[in-house]
């Protein structure tokens, strides 16, 4: 086995980009799964615009991911153990393989009773906590939305509002490296999205929003 490590993006000594090696190999599916999850993670700036249904769908997906991750981990570990024991895989550190099994068993692998692994169990608990969750109208605290922003967002879909929120949040995070961030616009966009989700509106209407919440 190579002494180098495959990584998605990192570079350096003993590191090889997975995209240069794994396409077409049996491990390609695992790296494709990583790429899909990374794409979700990379859109962190728009997460504040997710509805309860969006978050619930994410948790349901993670329940399945947790279960599948445990199964795939057990499959790969079993292959390494069998080949080490049979002597068909030389150079592997048997003690470290067993240590890896012990470390993984506490989180990923199923116990002797076949119950769900701890990661899956935690996700199931989180999913149960979301039963009945629903969006609510923003608090009527008397704040007015910036008139220019309200006009610009008139008729925008929730998806478009979420995109604007993501761009603004990302920009303010970048801005915070050199100066104090200003999240007033992001907060206003979040209230617009929350209003749309709570009222079931497909597009933003500032007049109706003002009547409901301000």
Query: How large is the radius of gyration?
Result: 24 Å
Number of helices: 8
Structural class: mainly alpha
Q: What number of domains?
A: 2
Estimate the global geometry from the Cα principal axes: elongated
Let me know the largest β-sheet: 2 strands, parallel
Helix content: 55-70%
Commentary on this structure:
- This protein has 214 residues and is an all-alpha fold.
- The protein folds into two domains: 43-129, no CATH class; 147-213, no CATH class.
- The chain has eight helices and two strands; from the N terminus they run E-E-H-H-H-H-H-H-H-H.
- A two-stranded parallel ribbon has the order 1-2.
- Helix 2 packs antiparallel against helix 3 (94-105) and helix 6 (158-175) runs antiparallel to helix 7.
- The longest helix is centred in the first third of the chain and has 35 residues, at 52-86.
- The mean pLDDT is 88.
């Amino acid at each position: 086995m190579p002494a180098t490590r495959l990584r998605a993006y990192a570079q350096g000594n003993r590191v090889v980009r997975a995209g240069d090696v794994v396409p077409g190999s049996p491990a390609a599916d695992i790296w494709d799964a990583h790429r899909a999850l990374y794409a979700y993670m990379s859109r962190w700036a728009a997460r504040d615009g997710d509805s309860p249904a969006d978050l619930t769908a994410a948790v349901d997906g993670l329940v399945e991911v947790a279960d599948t991750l445990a199964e795939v981990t057990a499959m790969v570990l079993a292959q390494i153990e069998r080949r080490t024991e049979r002597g068909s895989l030389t150079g592997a550190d048997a003690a470290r393989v067993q240590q890896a099994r012990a470390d993984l068993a506490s989180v990923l692998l199923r116990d002797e009773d076949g119950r769900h692994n701890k990661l899956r169990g935690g996700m199931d608990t989180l999913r149960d906590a979301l039963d009945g969750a629903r969006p609510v109208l923003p608090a009527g605290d008397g704040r007015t939305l910036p008139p220019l922003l309200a006009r610009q967002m008139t008729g925008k879909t929730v998806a478009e509002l979420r995109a604007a929120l993501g761009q603004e949040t990302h920009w303010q995070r970048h801005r915070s490296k050199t100066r104090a961030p200003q999240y007033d616009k992001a907060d206003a966009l979040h209230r617009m999205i929350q209003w749309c989700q709570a009222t079931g509106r497909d597009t933003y209407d500032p007049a109706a929003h003002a009547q409901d919440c301000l």
